[in-house]
Amino acid sequence: xxxxxxxxxxxxxxxxxxxxxxxxxxxxxxxxxxxxxxxxxxxxxxxxxxxxxxxxxxxxxxxxxxxxxxxxxxxxxxxxxxxxxxxxxxxxxxxxxxxxxxxxxxxxxxxxxxxxxxxxxxxxxxxxxxx
Length: 131
Ligand code: ZN
Hints:
- The protein has helices spanning 18-28, 55-67, 81-90, and strands at 2-8, 13-16, 32-38, 44-50, 93-99, 102-103, 109-115, 121-130.
- By secondary structure, the protein is an alpha+beta fold.
- The chain has a single domain (2-130), classed as Jelly Rolls (Sandwich).
- 27% of the residues are buried.
- Bound molecules: zinc ion.
- Residues 76, 78, 80, 84 line the site of zinc ion.
């Protein structure tokens, strides 16, 4: 089963999509398998990180801004090369195992859509594979 889901994003930030992914798993009826989340964008990505303390995604943003600042040497005419760098650092897909119909995430983990060049209307794909 392949699902496309849409979301509206802020200028930048980590949007918790864990429940949306779990809902796709539940709709599929798959009890044992894998959920693959893919983001078809070049200035947004997807990552798994702490879901408990909202300061963690905030600090991730600060760290990425420090690691990938805008630079005058960048040549990409659209002017958003740092957003491309941050998206590549996060990656375009994550895979989570499914056990008993539930995402097999760690206690503190959540799945986050990472926006670096919003606000935009974005989408992500969820593929549920049965073992
Ligand atoms: Zn660009």
